[in-house]
Design brief:
By secondary structure, this protein is an alpha+beta fold. The protein is built from twelve helices and six strands. The chain is 44% helix and 14% strand. GO terms for molecular function: DNA binding.
């Protein structure tokens, strides 16, 4: 436990908050910026003395439950919450459910890339946002937005060159999600359905595949423009456990011309489910 670093971090985050940020009245004029220690203690449901000792580098080793309460009281972002646990020498508790929202700056990124097909997937392989070129290239993303169900239940995978490999990639990500979000009911229902309906899914799950996102080349078969050889690159959004997949073609290639043709069929906005 890094007591001095923990104390400094707590003081810094407390002093950044205003009473209005946490739903408290401003009250009389404050001599120092931020919340008072007693206000943080009240929000975290711990004693003032306990919290004060943490900020004075002489506190006890806080439990994960107390750290969760303090993180909530200080309105810590996911990355800050993880940092708090590391300073306290504790393993972060699993979030109750995976993040299914798309941050505005990520949606904005999709809109600013009209010549690149881009989708955002959450930890369960649900496509939660996409741009027009992605829909023109990959087809309807609303009727069945979950790529795991499309791969194992419908046999509907857009790439003609990596159908077998895709199964292991999907299972590796779902296994990781199951470990991180054991209380997410929607994820649990998805896994139950996949286990019941797909022997291939069960077999892959049992061998525990491991996969790291990176650069891949695949061929997509499109009903209008035919085979399209594309590059797929993944940007990981660690704070939300999401991935942005960018699909591009080599400049001057027939695939690049096909993507330009498809780009004219969509509108200009990013979509989400």
């Amino acid at each position: 436990m890094a007591r001095q670093e923990l104390a400094r971090f707590l003081r810094d985050r407390r002093e950044r908050l205003r009473p209005a940020d946490v739903g408290l009245p401003a009250g009389p004029r404050r001599r120092t910026p931020g919340l008072r220690r007693e206000e943080v203690a009240q929000l975290a449901a711990v004693s003032v003395d306990y919290y004060a000792r943490l900020e004075q580098s002489r506190g006890p080793h806080p439990s994960p439950r107390v750290l969760d309460a303090i993180a909530a009281a200080l309105r810590l972002a996911p990355a800050e919450r993880g940092h708090l646990f590391r300073l306290a020498g504790a393993s972060p508790t699993a979030p109750p459910r995976l993040v299914r929202r798309v941050r505005p700056h990520v949606a904005g990124l999709l809109r600013r890339m009209p010549d690149t097909a881009a989708i955002v997937t959450d930890a369960s392989y649900q496509v939660i946002a996409w741009n027009p070129l992605a829909e023109a290239l990959l087809g309807d993303l609303r009727t069945e937005p979950n790529l795991a169900r499309r791969r194992f239940l419908a046999g509907d995978w857009p790439a003609s060159t990596d159908f077998a490999e895709a199964g292991a990639i999907v299972v590796a990500r779902l296994r990781a999600a199951a470990a991180r979000y054991p209380r997410d009911e929607r994820l649990a229902r998805l896994l139950t359905k996949l286990r019941a309906a797909s022997e291939e899914f069960v077999a892959l799950w049992d061998v525990d595949p491991v996969h790291a996102p990176g650069h891949r080349v695949k061929t997509l078969t499109h009903p209008e423009v035919g085979p399209v050889r594309v590059n797929c690159d993944v940007l990981v959004i660690p704070e939300d456990d999401q991935q942005v997949v960018f699909v591009t073609a080599d400049p001057g290639s027939s695939a690049a011309r096909a993507l330009r043709r498809l780009a004219h069929t969509g509108d200009t906005s990013a979509n989400s489910v």
